[in-house]
Amino acid sequence: MKIYIPATSANLGPGFDALGLSLSLHNRVSITPSSLGSISIKGEGADRPRLKTHNPFVSIFHEVYTQMSGRKRSFRFEFENKIPLSRGLGSSSAVIVGAIASAYHMAGMRVEKENVLNRALEYESHPDNIAPAVHGGFTTSIVHEGKVYTQKKSLPESIKAVLVIPDRPMSTAKSRTQLPKHYSMKECVNNLSHAAFLSATFLNEQWDLLHLASLDMMHEERRMRQLPELFRVRKMALEAGALMSTLSGSGSTFLNIVRTEEAEGVKAVLKKAFPEYRVDTCAFDNEGFTIENS
Ligand SMILES: Nc1ncnc2c1ncn2[C@@H]1O[C@H](COP(=O)(O)OP(=O)(O)O)[C@@H](O)[C@H]1O
Ligand SMILES: N[C@@H](CCOP(=O)(O)O)C(=O)O
């Protein structure tokens, strides 16, 4: 079998741990039963020898497969990774969602998206990346009594992402421990009202309101201070015509949403201004993970 899992961008400014969207940038994993277990890695992560011996995809896959099928078995895993690691593009969620869904499939179970999503929450405490990795599109999620509830809206071809991807990794786990434990009433009200408004803005496709709706007071600027050039990225992207410009997940990538006809222009401006960073245009993904039999 082969599984394709999309990159995701979480928070979208004020929707900390709640809002996310799915990008047309996929990891592909091919899995075949084999008497000798083995791993090959191409693309992102290929330069990390540790991922050949301690691979979270492989560990989660075996844990779920053994539980579902009631037996242990060896497999060959071939990874072709396009999602950069630790850049705020949901690489860890792609691993978790991909490993669970493929383990269900190889164990002969029906792969129900809701089951994969809820199982994924056992490995990642916040649903904002795993929900779009499972369902695609723009997603808004809540967790109630340990269960994830997600509303999805497919995104049209009339908008695109322009991603600015610094070469500096930022660990999500580490960055979460550095956020404050308490927020003021003003900060809470700002984020609640903006996250609710941003969801409605996506649902109603009122793209001109995206920037206003995406203003955060909880995490973004604190995190951007680790790489102050990101303030310039945001300023230049908005001046070049981006509809919104937010830190992607915990960073270091910046997500700029643009009208499709303006994507190449915004990309050219950002590429020129930040030659040391990777700048790519990317369509949105509306499917979430997909499985192919081979
Ligand atoms: N393709 C991959 N294969 C194996 N492990 C991966 C892969 N992508 C990410 N990981 C794991 O996830 C970690 C990055 O997680 P995290 O800091 O949450 O970054 P991100 O913001 O990209 O999700 C990596 O250090 C690695 O342990
Ligand atoms: N809500 C999380 C999102 C982390 O996304 P990632 O792509 O950086 O893993 C957070 O802000 O910590």
From TrEMBL:
<keyword id="KW-0028">Amino-acid biosynthesis</keyword>
<comment type="similarity">
    <text>Belongs to the GHMP kinase family. Homoserine kinase subfamily.</text>
</comment>
<keyword id="KW-0418">Kinase</keyword>
<dbReference type="InterPro" id="IPR020568">
    <property type="entry name" value="Ribosomal_Su5_D2-typ_SF"/>
</dbReference>
<dbReference type="InterPro" id="IPR006203">
    <property type="entry name" value="GHMP_knse_ATP-bd_CS"/>
</dbReference>
<keyword id="KW-0963">Cytoplasm</keyword>
<dbReference type="Pfam" id="PF08544">
    <property type="entry name" value="GHMP_kinases_C"/>
</dbReference>
<protein>
    <recommendedName>
        <fullName>Homoserine kinase</fullName>
        <ecNumber>2.7.1.39</ecNumber>
    </recommendedName>
</protein>
<feature type="domain" description="GHMP kinase N-terminal">
    <location>
        <begin position="69"/>
        <end position="137"/>
    </location>
</feature>
<comment type="function">
    <text>Catalyzes the ATP-dependent phosphorylation of L-homoserine to L-homoserine phosphate.</text>
</comment>
<dbReference type="Pfam" id="PF00288">
    <property type="entry name" value="GHMP_kinases_N"/>
</dbReference>
<feature type="domain" description="GHMP kinase C-terminal">
    <location>
        <begin position="210"/>
        <end position="275"/>
    </location>
</feature>
<dbReference type="InterPro" id="IPR036554">
    <property type="entry name" value="GHMP_kinase_C_sf"/>
</dbReference>
<feature type="binding site">
    <location>
        <begin position="84"/>
        <end position="94"/>
    </location>
    <ligand>
        <name>ATP</name>
    </ligand>
</feature>
<keyword id="KW-0547">Nucleotide-binding</keyword>
<keyword id="KW-0808">Transferase</keyword>
<dbReference type="GO" id="GO:0004413">
    <property type="term" value="F:homoserine kinase activity"/>
</dbReference>
<keyword id="KW-0067">ATP-binding</keyword>
<dbReference type="InterPro" id="IPR006204">
    <property type="entry name" value="GHMP_kinase_N_dom"/>
</dbReference>
<keyword id="KW-0791">Threonine biosynthesis</keyword>
<dbReference type="InterPro" id="IPR014721">
    <property type="entry name" value="Ribsml_uS5_D2-typ_fold_subgr"/>
</dbReference>
<dbReference type="InterPro" id="IPR013750">
    <property type="entry name" value="GHMP_kinase_C_dom"/>
</dbReference>
<dbReference type="InterPro" id="IPR000870">
    <property type="entry name" value="Homoserine_kinase"/>
</dbReference>
<comment type="pathway">
    <text>Amino-acid biosynthesis; L-threonine biosynthesis; L-threonine from L-aspartate: step 4/5.</text>
</comment>
